[in-house]
């Protein structure tokens, strides 16, 4: 099992600048590359300060010039916000800039608040049809001339310019949860990225079962797709028995802020929304700190290693260290350093 870093600029108030946040993201990426991580992933979100990423591609192009080995993942592009020609050309350009290190993830989208501003009238729950049309169109454009006459997009013969370095195509990933999404991804020859969010490791088992079912249903796909698990991760000092608590509190704040944006009930102020109040979740045990301690990947190095061993035994190909969590940059950096120094070598030795 290999490791990747999932990271965004993350601004909770105006005490830091966007430039400072960008430099922090670059520092964490360089640490991850030096520490043996395989990929850095940056997603797409619009007009929200707590997840700053209007496009992952320029961020990844900058990182391409600063790195040499780590792969550069756009994870994920929101399908309804992209024309296939633009998606194919811009991702291929990143592959050229990085000399064949680009990977692209695609998703249907989640935040109605973004849809209301970028594609008014479209429900986020209907984004799946855009995803199902975009994935094969991008792959065909990467490979040569292609004309498209679909439900969403129509265009005469065109192609991706430039062409990607990786042939026949760069790796494509699809964010999946329900069985139909897993089946679509595998049928298209795509890898699958999943997140159990606030659910326990039984959810990881269930998501892997859905993936395996999809793989078994498509024996015509001769190159087995891969599965990645994305999970909030924080490694604390083994000498601090309460070290988990600040991380659980920070991740609670992150999820309560997610709830505020996802609920789409309040107009943001200059890109900020306050987290939903803790009282709203009094009857939601998954938001309790001790529950988040168990479900998020929070623990001492030994505790994290033990859980990751279970993921590896389950057949997870990639574990993505989701570092967004509302903590300070210094706390994130310390956690990532512990993971690199004390967790990663255990898996490198096992693989060797």
UniProtKB/TrEMBL annotation:
<keyword id="KW-0503">Monooxygenase</keyword>
<dbReference type="InterPro" id="IPR036661">
    <property type="entry name" value="Luciferase-like_sf"/>
</dbReference>
<keyword id="KW-0560">Oxidoreductase</keyword>
<dbReference type="Pfam" id="PF00296">
    <property type="entry name" value="Bac_luciferase"/>
</dbReference>
<dbReference type="InterPro" id="IPR011251">
    <property type="entry name" value="Luciferase-like_dom"/>
</dbReference>
<dbReference type="InterPro" id="IPR050766">
    <property type="entry name" value="Bact_Lucif_Oxidored"/>
</dbReference>
<dbReference type="GO" id="GO:0004497">
    <property type="term" value="F:monooxygenase activity"/>
</dbReference>
<protein>
    <submittedName>
        <fullName>LLM class flavin-dependent oxidoreductase</fullName>
    </submittedName>
</protein>
<dbReference type="GO" id="GO:0016705">
    <property type="term" value="F:oxidoreductase activity, acting on paired donors, with incorporation or reduction of molecular oxygen"/>
</dbReference>
<feature type="domain" description="Luciferase-like">
    <location>
        <begin position="1"/>
        <end position="318"/>
    </location>
</feature>
<dbReference type="GO" id="GO:0005829">
    <property type="term" value="C:cytosol"/>
</dbReference>
């Amino acid at each position: 099992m290999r490791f990747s870093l999932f990271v965004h600029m993350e601004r909770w108030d105006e005490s830091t600048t966007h430039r400072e946040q960008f430099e922090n993201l670059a520092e964490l990426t360089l640490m991850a590359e030096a520490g043996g991580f395989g990929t850095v992933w940056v997603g797409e979100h619009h007009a929200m300060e707590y997840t700053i990423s209007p496009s992952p591609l320029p961020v990844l192009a900058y990182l391409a010039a600063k790195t040499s080995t780590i792969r550069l993942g756009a994870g994920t592009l929101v399908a309804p916000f992209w024309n296939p020609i633009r998606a194919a050309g811009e991702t291929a350009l990143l592959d050229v800039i990085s000399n064949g290190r680009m990977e692209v993830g695609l998703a249907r989208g989640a935040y109605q608040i973004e849809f209301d501003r970028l594609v008014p009238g479209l429900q986020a729950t209907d984004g799946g049809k855009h995803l199902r049309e975009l994935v094969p169109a991008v792959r065909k454009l990467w490979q040569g001339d292609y004309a498209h006459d679909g439900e969403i997009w129509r265009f005469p013969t065109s192609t991706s310019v430039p062409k990607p370095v990786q042939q026949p195509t760069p790796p494509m990933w699809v964010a999946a949860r329900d069985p139909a999404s897993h089946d679509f991804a595998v049928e298209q020859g795509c890898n699958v990225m999943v997140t159990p969010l606030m659910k326990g490791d039984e959810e990881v088992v269930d998501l892997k079962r859905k993936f395996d079912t999809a793989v078994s249903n498509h024996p015509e796909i001769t190159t087995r797709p891969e599965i990645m698990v994305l999970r909030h991760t924080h490694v604390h000092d083994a000498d601090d028995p309460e070290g988990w608590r600040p991380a659980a509190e920070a991740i609670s704040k992150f999820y309560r802020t997610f709830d505020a944006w996802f609920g789409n009930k309040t107009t943001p102020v200059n890109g900020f929304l306050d987290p939903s109040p803790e009282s709203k979740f009094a009857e939601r045990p998954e938001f309790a700190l001790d529950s988040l301690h168990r479900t998020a990947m929070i623990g001492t190095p030994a505790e994290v290693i033990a859980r990751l061993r279970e993921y590896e035994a389950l057949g997870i190909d990639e574990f993505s260290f989701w570092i967004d969590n509302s903590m300070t940059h210094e706390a994130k950096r310390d956690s990532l350093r512990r993971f690199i120094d004390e967790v990663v070598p255990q898996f490198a030795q096992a693989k060797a």
